[in-house]
Specification:
By secondary structure, the chain is α/β, with parallel strands linked by helices. α6 crosses α7, α18 runs parallel beside α19 and α21 crosses α23. About 45% of the residues are buried.
Length: about 700
């Protein structure tokens, strides 16, 4: 299928062929008929991509601070690589879509129903159920596609609480502004509006508004006009639908508002407020959040948990339904708002219209109208290379793209096929790294006779089943940590692996392959005494809505991340764990995620290890510190940048020119072992024990 993408590196827009996404559980898969370009949002995204790195930094001061913190802890090269990987991720454009349901993962929608959604500009989109609404029979697709944009207007109006007979001023007559004019008129309000474009002003007047061309008036003249239309009181409310960084809209809004008036921002504007304007009139100001309650709430949007109808009457989905009802009753007319139509293959030209035609309003993208192929789809990308290692890749997240795929490529592996749920990330990275093909169908990877190795970089809940399927298909396995998230999954893996002794099972425990860890391990081999190991992990917080905190998907940070350090402790001690315990800080609130814990391990050879996994520390402190005390010596690794050794002879230091956590050496060792037909790189009993201990400790935390 075809999809419109934007690059944050240079702002370029392209239409690419990509496998279709898979249907979300609790969502629907939609074959698009029409999508609408959002002039403000999509122009802003393209402009941001075209801007220089300095401009990007200026527009994101909070991110600049994060960058400096990362440079301080991880080094400049690692930081630059992370920034490049982030910017190189493809950005789907669009969020106003109409089409037909071709697959449903929920009971609310059936195959064949016409729906609108906030899906992007793509032939097939997958959308959670709360961002979808059914189109009434008498509403055309080209009308319905304005629903999401209309909901932005509607939510702003709801916040302003208009009553019949009040006078409102709409500032900015783009699509959102013109829809706002119609909705206010439908509420029985008198509407005054302004813009710099006379054609848009004329259109607003056709809808019954009083239009003002701001290019012809200064603020005092505009104030006088508004005063004339409101008997000297000023307007009851102002809806700002501009797209600017200037403070002028909010200053003007305060000037023309009556005492106790309301100002709602649904577009963008500078927020430098003159206190006296708001103080003297006691003006209320509020920024509207997109389509309404539920927006950016993952429990509502992703998990499908609705707000109580009686207490949250107008969620974003119910706002969608309200707009569609107004269209059904012909109280919201969009015909005159359409200025351009393009086919999906002309997507780049369609976006270009935003920059070439100032009179643009509703720019529509049309789709073939036939049910596009979406299941078991494989897109051919490049030509096949020859190597003993032929890789099928499942998952295309940030870590895979930034580190693992480049290292497999550098080691000469044949990158045969890559799969992802979205299809988009698979196609993008197939082209970027030279995979032969991309797909949305993981089953085709297990069935392929061209492959002898499968790499798994998906969410943690899928690891065990993918490992088992790969081993059953007689493929070697490289799986990013963790091995699994439950004891039952671990036992299933052990059972199938015992039957497939000739196949490699590698878990992505890269830290034991880091150059400084190898140096440390060589030092420890010369010592005969038991060791005391202390690891301090300044992990930082992850938002509580992140999938890693979901016990059924991510398993939590102990299983998903701390397993790294349990494995590293096993490696450094060179011995088996015989005792383990854990303590944590107690959360103050039941809804608080508590990721601060201390793991204590005791080993068969008498060594002990304390792993301090902490998330409430300073971001400028090194992220990982590893210390080993043994036979009058102290070894300290600081964030994989240097190793300091204290002994009777004094102090010496070894540094690396860049942070190296062992990813490159891990992949090199794995690929080299496959070519030489060697045995396990990491012993199976060590892989299994790190998983078993992490799962057991996590169960203790749940008590």
């Amino acid at each position: 299928m075809k999809q419109v993408l934007n690059s944050f590196i240079d702002g370029s827009v392209s239409v690419i062929d990509t496998p279709a996404p898979t249907c979300l559980a609790g969502g629907v898969l939609i074959a698009s008929n029409t999508s609408l370009i959002s002039p403000g949002t999509e122009k802003m995204l393209v402009d941001f991509g075209k801007s220089s790195y300095l401009t990007k930094a200026y527009k994101n001061p909070d991110r600049v601070k994060q960058v400096f913190n990362k440079v301080r802890t991880d080094g400049i090269i690692s930081t630059l690589e992370s920034i490049k990987a982030k910017l190189d991720s493809p950005i789907p454009l669009g969020y106003c879509n109409s089409g037909i349901v071709i697959e449903s993962g929920c009971s609310e929608f059936k195959v064949g129903e016409r729906v609108i959604s906030n899906g992007p500009h793509a032939e097939i989109v997958t959308v959670p159920k709360h961002l979808v609404a059914k189109i009434p029979d008498n509403v055309e697709n080209e009308t319905a596609v304005f629903t999401v944009m209309g909901s932005i207007s509607l939510q702003g109006i709801r916040l302003s609480k208009p009553t019949m007979g009040e006078t409102f001023f709409v500032m900015g007559l783009g699509l959102v502004g013109l829809l706002t004019v119609q909705l206010l008129k439908a509420n029985g309000c008198k509407v005054i509006c302004s813009d710099l474009n006379q054609k848009r002003i004329d259109l607003a007047e056709d809808y019954g508004a009083i239009g003002i061309n701001q290019s012809e008036l200064d603020h005092d003249q505009l104030y006088d006009l508004v005063s004339d239309h409101t008997s000297g009181f000023g307007v009851d409310g102002v809806i700002i639908a501009t797209a600017t960084s200037s403070n002028e809209p909010i200053q003007l809004a305060a000037k023309i508002c009556r005492k106790l008036g309301r100002i709602i921002l649904i577009g963008t504007a500078g927020l430098s407020i003159n206190r006296s304007d708001f103080y003297e009139k006691e003006i209320k100001f509020q920024v509207s959040c997109s389509y309404g309650p539920g927006r950016y709430d993952l429990s509502y949007e992703k998990s499908g948990i609705d707000y109580p109808y009686a207490y949250v009457r107008w969620t974003e989905q119910r706002n969608f339904q309200a707009i569609l009802e107004l269209m059904h009753e012909e109280k919201l007319i969009t015909d005159k708002l359409i200025t351009h139509r393009y086919n999906i293959s002309e997507g780049e030209k369609a976006i270009g219209t935003l920059f070439e035609d100032y009179d643009n309003l509703g720019i529509l993208i049309k789709y073939p109208g036939k049910k596009a192929k979406h299941k078991h789809e494989i897109i051919e990308i490049g030509s096949r290379t020859e190597d003993l290692i032929s890789v099928g890749w499942i998952g295309a997240g940030n870590y895979a793209v930034k580190s693992l795929i480049p290292n497999f490529k550098k080691n000469g592996c044949n990158l045969e096929i890559i799969a992802s749920k979205s299809g988009l990330t698979a196609a993008h990275n197939a082209k970027k790294f030279g995979f032969t093909s991309a797909t949305n169908d993981t089953s085709s990877i297990f069935q392929s006779k061209k492959l002898n190795t499968i790499v798994i970089t998906t969410t943690h809940d899928s690891h065990s089943q993918f490992i088992i399927s790969a081993l059953q298909a007689n493929k070697h396995v490289f799986c990013e940590k963790p091995l699994c998230i439950s004891i039952d999954q671990l036992r299933s893996i052990q059972e199938i692996k015992s039957q497939k002794r000739d196949l490699q099972l590698m878990i992505g425990f890269n830290r034991r392959f880091a150059p400084l860890i190898r140096d440390l391990k060589d030092e420890l081999k010369l010592l005969n005494a038991s060791k005391t190991i202390i690891m301090t992990i300044n992990a930082g917080q992850i938002d509580k809505s992140h999938w890693i905190h979901d016990p059924t998907v991510g398993g939590g940070r102990l299983i998903g991340e701390a397993c790294h350090f349990i494995d590293l402790a096993i490696h450094l001690s060179g011995s088996k764990i015989i005792e383990y315990s854990i303590n944590r800080t107690e959360p103050k609130l039941s809804t608080e995620v508590c990721d601060n814990f201390i793991i204590n391990l005791k080993f068969e050879d008498g060594s002990i290890c304390q792993i301090n996994y902490l998330t409430h520390g300073s971001k400028i402190f090194p992220k990982e510190r590893i210390e080993v005390f043994c036979e009058g010596r102290i070894y300290q690794i600081n964030n994989f940048l240097n190793l300091i050794i204290w002994n009777k002879g004094g102090r010496k230091k070894r540094s690396t020119w860049r942070q190296d956590k062992g990813q490159k050496a891990l992949v090199k060792a794995f690929s080299g072992s496959l070519r030489a037909s060697n045995n396990q790189i990491i012993k199976l009993d060590e892989i299994y024990q790190s998983a078993e201990v992490a799962i057991a400790l996590n169960q203790f935390l749940k008590r």
